[in-house]
């Protein structure tokens, strides 16, 4: 992949005929999630019910938006780093894993909201406790799809190796799995404080692991973008810049995690 990888990827995304069936399916799935987000937002306008002082439809809407961004980014990164990977059988498995795990989470969270009940941390009976645990496994499976994709892109690098931008994709995908899985397990055992929190995101500035979890999940977008900037702007120092930027990202995640635990 040359420095025009970004342009090529965007052209591929625009011309759906060049995309694999799996990529097309993910793009459509992401669009349906945005449609569901709009419908849920409309329903929420006439439903004043709250759960822990937050509107019951807020969590489903967050997960719908996050799922759309996650699946579209997956397609974009694969087309950007190595379009040939998107034509392989392994990529079909990656897309299926993303679809099954994310759809399960969104459907269950939305159903629980419709009942005015919590999905996360709900261990009020054996069924809900089982479903909470199953959500944790689904979350690991969802982020593991990114580790799998990183492996496929790295394995298909060819004799010329990976460019800095492609390395940015691989590193970003790996960090998405590692950081979001660690913070996700911590979040699963440490419920955030009740109440509205910060505008838009709803986070709290103390005893809330969600900010570090957010940073972990969105390594999927931020690290590859930094790799692109480094290769285009820093020349022979691009590799070092990618390594330094990735290290600082992990440090920032660690600081947020440490602060959230109130250590």
UniProtKB/TrEMBL annotation:
| Superkingdom, natural source | Bacteria
Q: Where are the transmembrane segments?
A: 21-45, 57-78, 90-109, 129-150, 162-189, 241-261
Asked whether the UniProt record includes Transmembrane among its keywords, one would answer: yes
- Keywords carried by this UniProt record: Membrane, Transmembrane, Transmembrane helix
Indicate what this protein is called per its UniProt record: Uncharacterized protein
Q: What is the lineage of its organism?
A: Bacteria, Pseudomonadati, Pseudomonadota, Betaproteobacteria, Burkholderiales
